[in-house]
Amino acid sequence: MNRKGFEFSFAWLFAILVGAVVIFLAIYATTSLIGSGRYETDTKIAAQLESILSPVGTNLEDSKFVRIGFPDETRIYNRCSSIGIFGSQLISTSVRSGIGKEWLPPGGEIESKDKYVFSKSVLQGEEAYVFVKSFEMPYDVADIITIYSGEYCFINPGDEIEEEVMDLRLPGINISESLEKCKPESIKVCFSSFDRDCDKKVSQTDVDGLYYEEGLVYAAIFSDAEVYECQVRRLIKRTSELAEIYAKKSEFLAGKGCSSNLAGDLGRYSSLLGEFENSGDLRVVKSNSEEIEDKNERLSCELF
After folding, report:
1. pLDDT in tens, 221-265
2. What pLDDT score does 299 carry?
3. What is the DSSP pairing of strand 206-207 with strand 210-211?
4. Contact at 8 Å (CB) between 232 and 279?
5. Residue 222, by phi and psi: left (phi above 0), alpha (psi -120 to 50) or beta?
6. Strands (E), the chain
């Protein structure tokens, strides 16, 4: 065997192996940098989304709609915690990429104490539709922010919901008289007659076991159960804290010669709200809310 030829071949083999390792390390480093960059980008997008949601309020309107577009298909992760005085809202995002893995875990979570976002726990699409309604129980508590995407078919939703959908021109929601007229790929939401082909069933009190009162029906339709129940608990916590504030306001006004006699009612209302467990308790809360509202409307100096 030609020794020089053997040495030459071995040298080339060694160079090829070293080159392969260098290329692998370069690819690994590039992929890691891309992953790190995507985490930062996804975190910034979540922060921008949270910022966009900040001015989206109902103000003097009963409801409002906003369309949000993304540069590429995006996943919105909605996580809720009811721990603490007001609990917290946590939003994160992940944008689909054509380099490396198509989907990476989401970026950092953006926390908010004063937002109540109802949606699926993971929402995916190039567009997201934001529908805002005010929540009053009986005073103004907060804005209910519902985010959805995709196609929905509302079967016989009733005049009020149909008019609202049409007036706000809510995209992705089609009104139909029967299941047969719905698009095959749409999520079918039945309001009157319930068929086994219905994806969601809405009665006068609940959506598939998620109980609602005014303002919450859309939130119940478009949300996962865990997200919905958590956000409702957070809303009730805020309602309870506001009841205490209005009770103190009532006592203050009484000292100024404008007695309302609502301090006791509001104190008991706050205690009732403190025992709230899940959306099944909303009916009792609503009943007490209406009693307080009725008394407030008869006052010469209303509290709210």
Report:
1. 999 999 999 999 999 999 999 999 999 999 998 888 787 789 999
2. 86
3. antiparallel
4. yes
5. alpha
6. 63-81, 88-95, 110-112, 117-118, 122-136, 140-148, 152-155, 173-176, 187-190, 200-201, 206-207, 210-211
150 HSE (CA, 13 A, CB side): 18
Domain ranges for the chain: 151-222, 230-298
At 298, phi and psi to the nearest 5?
Answer: -90, 0
Distance CA 304, CA 56 (A): 23
The answer to whether 87 and 230 have CB atoms below 8 angstroms apart is yes
Which of 55, 47, 59, 87 minimizes the C-alpha distance to 235?
87
The per-residue pLDDT for 8 is 46
Return d(Cα 282, Cα 135) in angstroms, integer: 13
- C-alpha pair distances (Å), 124 with each of 12, 133, 273: 50, 22, 35
More confident residue, 274 or 48: 274
Q: How far apart are CA 48 and CA 54, in angstroms?
A: 10
Provide mean pLDDT across the span 65-85. 93
